[in-house]
Design a protein that fits this description.
By secondary structure, this protein is mainly alpha-helical. The chain has a single domain, classed as Serine Threonine Protein Phosphatase 5, Tetratricopeptide repeat, CATH 1.25.40.20.
């Protein structure tokens, strides 16, 4: 998006994370993938759009979460985070091996910031190379570090 800033999580910590953490520990009893009535967004989709990195990480701890579930506009949590350029949330989502390669390709196609596009492509290439193995050397923060380096070379875009 022209005129938007890639956000490096300047969002204040969510006060509800501890409550969500307790709910995630409930395991099977929690309907983690149930969407809202109006937009069919899951909790992960809402947290991704809002840029709540801590909430996204907490929700991804649930073993039954489906990070590729789309809302009524066919937007996965990864696409929602990419659309609003929440770099650290994107990084956390692409690091999760449950996100399939189709979601990675779709998110890369709509990415407007080059660092985000390259990070998604790098993860997608790595998954093809590993053929389903979890790359032990992959850690969160690759995208964030790239944005810090990119910020030194380029002027950040303005936030709306």
């Amino acid at each position: 998006m022209v005129g938007t800033e890639v956000t490096n999580q300047n969002v204040p910590a969510c006060p509800h994370v501890e409550a969500v953490r307790l709910l995630v520990q409930q395991g099977e009893r929690l309907r983690i993938n149930q969407g809202t009535l109006a937009m069919h967004d899951t909790a992960l989709g809402i947290a991704s759009r809002a840029g709540s990195l801590e909430m996204v990480r907490t929700l991804l701890e649930h073993e039954k979460i489906a990070p590729d579930l789309e809302n009524r506009w066919m937007e996965s949590p990864l696409k929602l985070a990419v659309k609003v350029a929440h770099a650290l949330v994107v990084d956390a989502l692409v690091a999760d091996q449950r996100v399939d390669t189709y979601s990675l390709r779709e998110a890369r196609a709509i990415a407007t910031h080059e660092s985000i596009r390259m990070a998604i492509q790098h993860e997608n290439d790595g998954r093809r190379t590993c053929r389903g193995r979890v790359a032990a050397s992959r850690t969160e923060g690759t995208l964030a570090l790239g944005l810090v380096d990119a910020g030194r070379k380029h002027r950040p875009l303005r936030r709306r």
